[in-house]
Amino acid sequence: MIDVGIIGASGYTGGELLRFLKYHDNVNVIAATSRQYAGINVSKVHPHLRGENIKFKDIPAEKVDADLVFTATPHGASMDIVPELIERGIKVVDLSGDYRFDDIAVYEKWYGIEHSAPLDAVYGLPEVYREEIKKSKLVANPGCFPTGGILASLPLAKEKLIDAIILDSKSGVSGAGIKPTGATHYPNISDNIVPYAVTTHRHMPEIQQEVSKFGDVKVSFTPHLVPVIRGILTTAHAFLKEDVTSEHVKEIYDAFYESEPFVRVVDMDEIPRLSAVRGSNYCDIGCFQIDPNGRIIIVSAIDNLVKGASGQAIQNMNIMFGFDEKKSLDVTGLHP
Amino acid sequence: MIDVGIIGASGYTGGELLRFLKYHDNVNVIAATSRQYAGINVSKVHPHLRGENIKFKDIPAEKVDADLVFTATPHGASMDIVPELIERGIKVVDLSGDYRFDDIAVYEKWYGIEHSAPLDAVYGLPEVYREEIKKSKLVANPGCFPTGGILASLPLAKEKLIDAIILDSKSGVSGAGIKPTGATHYPNISDNIVPYAVTTHRHMPEIQQEVSKFGDVKVSFTPHLVPVIRGILTTAHAFLKEDVTSEHVKEIYDAFYESEPFVRVVDMDEIPRLSAVRGSNYCDIGCFQIDPNGRIIIVSAIDNLVKGASGQAIQNMNIMFGFDEKKSLDVTGLHP
Amino acid sequence: MIDVGIIGASGYTGGELLRFLKYHDNVNVIAATSRQYAGINVSKVHPHLRGENIKFKDIPAEKVDADLVFTATPHGASMDIVPELIERGIKVVDLSGDYRFDDIAVYEKWYGIEHSAPLDAVYGLPEVYREEIKKSKLVANPGCFPTGGILASLPLAKEKLIDAIILDSKSGVSGAGIKPTGATHYPNISDNIVPYAVTTHRHMPEIQQEVSKFGDVKVSFTPHLVPVIRGILTTAHAFLKEDVTSEHVKEIYDAFYESEPFVRVVDMDEIPRLSAVRGSNYCDIGCFQIDPNGRIIIVSAIDNLVKGASGQAIQNMNIMFGFDEKKSLDVTGLHP
Amino acid sequence: MIDVGIIGASGYTGGELLRFLKYHDNVNVIAATSRQYAGINVSKVHPHLRGENIKFKDIPAEKVDADLVFTATPHGASMDIVPELIERGIKVVDLSGDYRFDDIAVYEKWYGIEHSAPLDAVYGLPEVYREEIKKSKLVANPGCFPTGGILASLPLAKEKLIDAIILDSKSGVSGAGIKPTGATHYPNISDNIVPYAVTTHRHMPEIQQEVSKFGDVKVSFTPHLVPVIRGILTTAHAFLKEDVTSEHVKEIYDAFYESEPFVRVVDMDEIPRLSAVRGSNYCDIGCFQIDPNGRIIIVSAIDNLVKGASGQAIQNMNIMFGFDEKKSLDVTGLHP
């Protein structure tokens, strides 16, 4: 039994952490912090938690005494909190972008923030870094687009089948967070498909960093906001350098993800779909079709709040503490 | 040819006024005001107007010299503007609630605002007040819920067939305006149906005021926000005092709205639907079914931004200036 | 450990039964039948079950040897199957309407089907019939609208506070089943709100039957199809016979549902919402506001496929076999 | 004044043709045929046409005596009808794929249909073939994806800036037609994004045919069905062969479409959006951003039923008969 704190628990990722931890019998949630909602039951903000007996607390991170802390804080805010936690011997899974980059300069360029407190961290993609995560004190939980984008790209990169890949991603609106904006205003996004940050999204260098470790592949990335609550569907387009078959590529993916509990390579007669992963920690990958121009299409689907955020964070916690990796995460998607 | 100004043109009703006036060959739009967007082309806010050569102006109402002004200003703000316009001999169609009530005390109670400048105004529902509107200098354009709710209720009230009516209304999100709020945040309203202000909505006394003129009927009203961009569907439930048939009631409605250009009583084998009125100035009314308990159901459908706001405002303008009442409004709905 | 069969497992209710039973450690699913999909993995139809190792079988009900069978068969088909199962000593939870009515004549009138095989059955609403369900061999699982409608109405009926109630229900499209129709065609229901069977829905007499047992209340019911995947929100309108307060009515509901594991009476500052129950077996009830005309509004929210169908069926199974009533059903809603 | 017939008027494109022709004062609709709905008012199928006094007729094409016929018939059916119409001197705009291909072999390969009656036809994209359309007797109206895809690609191809282009298109569900299918079933497409026919869609060779006339560019195309009623947003990705700026590319597009009435190149600070073209005949094109890998993104937006089908068909008719090209088509989009 470990004590767990959540710093910044009033956002969507906080709500999802609480949802999964509720069923985790090795975990005791000792603090869910929020300045704005201090003293209020979490269910007033996260209505699916109706009946839970947890109140938001307005306490600073340095007053949280736990075995592990999830920092569900904004980019730029985590770096003010994490070092002190680590110093006190508390393990941390940070959901912000602050510790995802090997090269601080890349972070500073794309986030426009000076990094005040760099630390050694492991990039929390268990499919790649499981062994490192086991020993880590600080795990940088991957971004939502990177999770689906990297998992779709790695096997092609590793096998040197491509030089470049274009990730055309479609994200549900919960990815934009709990705070209303013009972009998330229902009349603006319902019945609409909105490309944004088409060449400038900061998840691009994150994907590039990880894909580069497997092969010399140039990553191009364009996200779209779509009228979906949860889920990211990524359509990856790449021109093959060799004349291979779809079946062969599928075998490569099957082998790459063979023992992964949360990556499912789907059959050739199916295509990943959001409802199959909605609410769950799965990443479904498939398609593998090749057109007459030698372009291959890989499609991945995740729930941006689960495998793209809080579910993966708990998966990382399970690995860090030697729990069963699927603990509390063994739930199906919600279809329809 | 008349000169027309729009005070507060950056909201949805402003965008709709501009859309219809673009095709009105008796009208010259001389000013579309907005403090926030002064100097910017209207199409930057209203993207459907792309190509229009109109810029928002930040000028006070008293500098607008026109034959008619639409005040698309918030409740409480119109009363600061309208008297001066009227004094200068400018006709006004006010889209706020400020001039809709016969009894100032009712306004002040339900809007929680002291009324600083009461004036004689005509309630701008042409189906009831056409003759008064012709001679009016100030028309109070009806609220969106009241338009559909009153039109659904009047014939029953007039024929003394009912003592009470329950209006269960479902409104598209554009009715909440162009400004993002928690209620309009996509993840909150998509895949959801949200009752709100269930007994306290200020459109309730407005509907009551008008229905009472036709019969002694108690009006109960509950609105819902629904995952729809445009449109209000109202399901009216009322217990009949007499044993009449659906066919008989339909005849009453047919007769009542016989010569109305924008009210369509639909056949018994159909039901009003939002796509039939989407983008148009029609109010469709139908159903007339009676259950074993003697409850009759009347359904009305409007586009909240058109017949429920800007379209009706232009209809009123047409009447006030002796133009063809359908001028620039003769467009079908958009289905699918 | 019991053996369970599902007859007609290829519909949405079949998919949901399989989803919950996957986590039920007292249950072994020995057959999921489907003529159309025989030999195919269930995940090809129910994509959220990807990874499950269950294939549809085309076997007749009489070849299913189990401790309990869920008959997820259409109205009129269950009566051909259920008697033989019961005769063989198999317990049955029937999800059709065939065994829900005390009076066969009512069934035959509203369903337009002659009932060939009436049997003693218990109406499977645990909040009312828990003790009877424990001893029952055949449980008639309630309809989706009746579940939310009855639970919203009972306390008012029992306390003799009303003579009549109007249920204005809004149902997600999954309630129409897995088979595409004109009504479920995306362009027809997206951005739309569709009243249907306004006075003739066969769930009306089912609700009336159960409410009548608690008080002399006339039930009027009108369903709407709404652009939502899952969920029924019912807005109940009733004129109070006595001058009571909202707080008093809430206390009545609190007391009535005090020990119910799956009914949550929500606080006065909240309103039931679909995302709080999505994917879960909860029925949330609240509102209790009273307007100046003495009309009270009660709002209930359920997931039509869970508390409105498969979740409740499993709740009934748990009761019939003495399992913990919450077994495999203890999951929160999915918000956002 | 010309007489116009519509063969196959009960689908969405038929409904849209009728919507626009209603306001066209040079056109008299003398027949709207439908076998299934013969004798029924068009508004029973196309509810936005409520009030129109036109009934579907079940007459064969050879009994239609008109100046122009729109054949809104399925692929493979047009070829049985069109030759006889042409022979009788009737001009034809065919909305099927039957006459879009220069090379019959390509048609036969991708449509899997033997072509029984090839004829000389002009590809009905006015931005390219206006002069030919003026003199044509048979115009093959472009497909919906090709319209947006070709218009987005041509200037890049003409300037030899690219060798290959990837079109990642997102289509609203009305593009799938009026007939319900599994793919259009609300619970399947709501909250979902569905790639389909990822390398095999028959609009691919159509786009390739037209783009090839402007440059040696390999076209790769993948469509997605998205939870939108109307509209296609195409995100085109291409690697530039030269080092050019976004501004330069925008100038190329500005020049290319300078005098086009229905193509709007949007400012660099905006992005094409579906609501700006919804219900209208515009194609909006923009973006022009270039990422560090030299990939340029071009985005186009159309209403699939208007510029992607019926609106363009009427634009072609206007050109064929020397009417003002914008006649009856001069309507804005519908936002929000």
TrEMBL record, chains A, B, C, D:
Which major enzyme category is it? oxidoreductase
Q: Could you give a single Gene Ontology term from the biological process aspect?
A: L-arginine biosynthetic process
Pathway given in the UniProt record = Amino-acid biosynthesis; L-arginine biosynthesis; N(2)-acetyl-L-ornithine from L-glutamate: step 3/4
| Gene Ontology CC annotations of this record | cytoplasm
Tagged with keyword Amino-acid biosynthesis: yes
Q: Name the catalytic site residues.
A: C144
The protein's name is N-acetyl-gamma-glutamyl-phosphate reductase
Identify the domain of life. Archaea
Which HAMAP family does the entry mention? ArgC_type1
Q: What is its main location?
A: cytoplasm
The organism that produces this protein has a lineage beginning with: Archaea, Methanobacteriati, Methanobacteriota, Methanomada group, Methanobacteria
Which family is this sequence assigned to? Belongs to the NAGSA dehydrogenase family. Type 1 subfamily.
> Which gene produces this protein?
argC
Q: Where in the cell is it found?
A: Cytoplasm
Q: Which Pfam families match?
A: Semialdhyde_dh, Semialdhyde_dhC_1
Organism field: Methanobacterium bryantii
* Annotated signal sequence range: none
- Matches recorded under NCBIfam families: argC
